[in-house]
Amino acid sequence: MKSKLGICVFSVLISIGTNLLFHSLEYGEWIHSSLFPSNKGTDPCKSSVFLESGWQVADLSGKKIGTFFLPGNFSGLGYSVLHISKTIHFSEIPSCDIALLLGKTSEGTKVFWNGILLTERSEENKQFNFSYDKKKIYKIHQAKTENRLEILVSEYFENELGILEVVPNIGNLKVVLRKHYTFQIYYLILISTFLILGIYLVFLSIQEKKLGTHFNFGIFLILFFQFSFFGSEWKYELDWDFLVCKKVEYISLSFLFPFFTFFFSDFCRGRHYPFEFPLALWSVFLSFLFGYCSSPLELDQLNRSLLQPSWILYIWIIFKNLRARSVHQDGAGFWGAVCILVVSILLDIASARAWITFPRSSEYSILGFLLFCSFRISNRFVEMKKELQSWNVKLQEEVKVKTKELLESLTYVSSLKEKQDGDYFLMSSILQSCFKSKIEIFGDFKIETLVSQFKTFEFKSKPGEIGGDIVCLEEIRIGTRTFLAILNADAMGKSLQGATGALLAYSMFKSHIEVSSSGYYTPETWIVSLYEKIHRLFQIFDGNLFATGILALLDSENSCIFFLNAQHPPSILLRNNISGCIEKETSYKMGIPFVKEIPKVYCISLKENDSLIFGSDGREDLRLKTGTKEIRSFSEPFLLEVSKTKADLSLLKTKMNVYGDYMDDLSLVRIIRKEDPNKKSRDIWKETSKRKKLQKGILLWKKGDKKIACGLFAELSIDDPTDTDLAYITAWAFWKTGKLEKAKTYSEKLLYRDPENHQNLVLLAKIYFRLGISDVIILDLLESYGLDVQRMFRPTDNSRKVS
Description:
Layout: H1 2-35, E1 49-50, E2 55-58, E3 64-68, E4 72-73, E5 81-89, E6 98-105, E7 110-113, E8 116-118, H2 121-124, E9 136-140, E10 146-154, E11 162-165, E12 169-172, H3 173-208, H4 213-231, H5 234-237, H6 242-268, H7 276-291, H8 296-325, H9 329-352, H10 362-435, E13 441-442, E14 445-452, E15 455-459, E16 462-466, E17 469-478, E18 481-491, H11 496-516, H12 523-539, E19 547-555, E20 560-566, E21 572-575, E22 578-581, E23 601-605, E24 611-615, E25 621-623, E26 631-633, H13 635-645, H14 649-659, E27 661-662, E28 666-673, H15 679-703, H16 706-719, H17 724-736, H18 740-753, H19 758-771, H20 775-783, H21 798-801
Antiparallel strand pairs: 1-12, 2-3, 2-5, 4-11, 5-10, 6-9, 6-11, 6-12, 7-8, 7-10, 13-14, 14-28, 15-16, 17-18, 18-19, 19-20, 20-23, 21-22, 21-24, 24-28, 25-26, 25-27
Helix pairs in contact: 1-9, 1-10, 3-4, 4-6, 6-7, 6-8, 7-8, 8-9, 9-10, 10-11, 11-12, 12-18, 13-14, 15-16, 16-17, 17-18, 18-19, 19-20
């Protein structure tokens, strides 16, 4: 209890001390002269002559009312205008310029010195129609040893008449002005500390993204600065509009109590009373009324009748919060500081209503409140320092133990890292040996590749990289022709997982090449067969391993390429320095569970100097260089850079790195068709030969030599793989002659190239039926393209349909 009482008394003494300190700056000389009078008191050039007593007060008719002290409020005498006078004696005529410091008076004050009307700066400046809150300083002319000072005062605000603040005194003009401006500068410095601290607290709360205690107290200090600054005499010094300054002063005043109450509720209870927010809305409403006032009288009336009565509720809330905090030592201190602050505010209100004559003190009480907070915070730091010292000893011992454990863990992790890098090195070596290809020229085509894995490592000072991107090139034979098989795949994962997927895809690629050497394929069926094998292999992993890719066959003799895109980025063709995407649709990625889809195979002819580019999504999915982790797809810029770099793979990679950082494995394949001066003549000869063979095949078919005709049709389809009509004729001819496997091959060739060819779909369904393939497969095939199959495979109609 003693500790709480001591803290409370300490906070009260701080608040009272700050009031005494700053009031002594303003009233110190008067207090000293009252306590220690001297002979110099009648010479204004040497010291100020204070005129607090002996003032004759009379009405306008000259009827004497009595003798009074100044400052004082004479509104209780029942007059609206009074005449106040005093005879002043000097020991000798002043040898310096002297001035009268009258202080704050009621509005409409006129001062006469020896019958001469004196003027003050605010009265000379036409901009200031009012000066009731200004300390008035008059320069005195023609001073004598005996002088008559007369003051005519009139009432402007209700119950406010007379000299309201500061003991009137006469002194050296330079000294009076210096003291006046010194005090104003000190006052500005004082209230500026509130502004600086308030802005700091507001920015601190914004940085913490929490509008709580700091924010409310910061806004309170900023508002208090506005209220004090616009209510001070600086508006006269800066020649600002008086009414506007008064509106700002009263609007700031309307928000002071709401924000101080918000702060105190947050600090003491951590929550607000329900009626705090309606009170705040009342203040907002009053601030709008203040903004529309047309005179100081209206502002004062609203303040007295509507705003100040609401402060009773705020004071009640503040003391309720203090009661909740009183169990803590800080709460006891806040009791003292807040009590003094509330008393100071009540004294200011009473002084403003002219009930008493007392200098303003709320600013100094707030400073005392802040000083108490500072002392308590510093004391807390001292207590925390002692506590931290005791904890520091314990922590040092624990740090030694933890350091030893960390060193052991680091050694263990380093050994694991070395083993992991060894695994990476082994897998990387296997992949490099598998994917290494020496094929750079294939017929009229030049092949360029670029593979850069995202995951890098170092094993025994040997750098390496590992990932899921692969590029495989192998020469294969399909029938009597040689093709270049190309696999560009991107397996899911960036290290061991991706490398495992890449190795599996490569193994299936090599296996399919070996097995397919004895089978009967077209380029399309070969590609689809490879796609389905890799797809079924990855499906074993139940969705834990996928791969995208390009599966392609390059036909050098016909200058064309067949390829299937399994959700890889679109292939890009560069022709005449203009780049564009080829495929609009892609097949599903390999490994997706429960997918039933007819793959789509593209076939394009390449002209001289054409470049075809395949690549994984690492080429365009880049992380922005803005310090964030945002990843964006740069597909359009990649297409543009292909044209600018003329499809140079190394330069293309460098250019794309300007847009963002690579964050995935990267693989690129470029196929360039070289110039061939004899190609044009060979193409003309092949077209002529094609027409002759087709005519010959048709004649042989009509004569009944259907087997020979089938051979010619098949040869023509191989020679011109881009002609889908030839593929259908060949499939139809083989079906008619009973060679169902070959008919199936050519019909599927057309299916993968043109899945919506309904004529071919019906033909393929008939071939499947004759081969004994499941009805479900046939029905799915036809129904997926909207064909009516309800009656196609009825038992009574089967013989007729397949005839």
